[in-house]
Structures are given as C-alpha cells and as structure tokens.
Amino acid sequence: MNITTFIIDDSNNDIKTLSSILKSFQHDSNNISFHVKTFLDTEYEAMLLEIAVLYFIDIDMPAISGFDLARKIKANNNKAIIIFVSQHSDLVFESYRLETCYFIRKSNLVDDFHFAMEKVTHTLYLKYSTYCITTSSSLRSVNYTDIVYFEINYNDLYIHLSNGEVLKERKTMKKLLSEISNSNFIQIHYSFYVNSQNINIIEENQVRLISGEILPITKSKYSTIRKEYLKHLSSR
C-alpha cells in the first residue's frame, strides 16, 4: 500500500528527521510505502489544496496552530489520519479531542513513531480496505466504511451503502464470511452482517442503526453479539 503522507512543521530540521524515520520504516515494512511531501507552516494554504491519507502535524507553529490546521484538514478530508508531533506532551489530551490517530513526542520520537505506525496500520485497514462486488457485467470496489450492512436473501446478497444505494450480487452468507476482510462487521442474524460503526443501540431482539433503521437480531446470540460490539467500541 502506497500512502500519500504530508509532514507539516515550522522546523526544517524536524521535517528532515521525521522524513528519515519514515524512510527507515518503509524499508523495514513489506506492506507499506510512503509518498512523502513536506511543508513548512507558512505553506499550509498550499498544502490544503492537496489531499493526503496521513498527516504528521507539529502543534506549536507560528503561522497556524496544529489544532487549527487539523480542523481545516478534517473539514475537507474526513478520512484523514492525523498524528500530532510536539515537544509539549501536556497537549496530548487536547489532541485526542480532534479524533487524531496518535500523539508523538519529539523527545521520544523513534519509539513513539513505531507505536503510532501500529495504530496507523490498523486505521488504514479499517478506513481504506475495500469489498469487490462481482456481477455478470461488472466488477466494482466499495470501501468497507461505506457499507452499512450486508443482507442475504437465499443466494442473493444485497449491499446497503451509506448513500442509500443498494447493490446486488449472487452470494451466500457462508461465502461472504469466508471472503470478507474487515473486522468491523458483526453477524447479528443469519441474514444480516452489520458494520459496527453504524450501530446505535443493540436490544435483545433488534439492532437500531444510526440511520434509524431497525434490523432483527438472533435472540439466542444476543449476549455474544453484545460482547463483540463492546469489543469493537473499545478498539476505536
């Protein structure tokens, strides 16, 4: 996977150091490579005209604070994975209010970076992995994050998307479960496989989605489903 990565800092030396660490990590990884672009804080407006997957942002910058810059990035790119890099470890709690992936201390750069990349790898998997839908006339790739739930009716599989679109292909639930490559989904019923990100409430006989839609639940598996959902919540 090639990840478009932006580094934004007011220090050229810090930019070079982080770029070097990224290069070393890329050399050691079999699955991840980085397409890196760097920006000084005074170049943030130009940076905002482009889109990246991963952002390393210094917090304390003269031209714009890292927090304000993160808000601007998120406004145009809600899938952005943001990691704050700072000398001020006391800002760590404030950074998480912005749904950032991790906080790297410049005083502990190398160790913190490797912890951060473990989280990034998991987040990339959840946000950017895709499901391929095959019909007799086409092949389409859909981000798992855009799938609300799968529904099986005999040998027909219906894929319900967050934009209201419903796609269809021929597939059994057994086949779907053997192919799916995203751990965010929970089978709540023999006919329904739901993206846990879209669940609002789990009740004894039904699941209420964030959209307000209600789906049936297998009552005998309520306890197992509830535990699985709580596990998903704790890992977010």
Please explain how this structure is put together:
The chain has 236 residues and is an alpha/beta fold. It is built from seven helices and 15 strands. The mean pLDDT is 87.
Please give the structural blueprint.
Blueprint: E1 2-9, H1 12-28, E2 33-40, H2 44-47, E3 54-58, H3 66-76, E4 81-86, H4 92-96, E5 102-105, H5 109-128, E6 130-134, E7 139-143, E8 147-153, E9 156-161, E10 166-170, H6 173-179, E11 185-189, E12 192-195, E13 199-202, E14 206-209, E15 214-216, H7 222-235
Parallel strand pairs: 1-2, 1-3, 3-4, 4-5
Antiparallel strand pairs: 6-7, 8-9, 8-12, 9-10, 11-12, 13-14, 14-15
Identify the notable features of this structure and list them briefly:
236 residues, five-stranded parallel beta sheet, elongated, 33% helix, alpha/beta
Summarize, please.
The protein is of the alpha/beta class and 236 residues long.
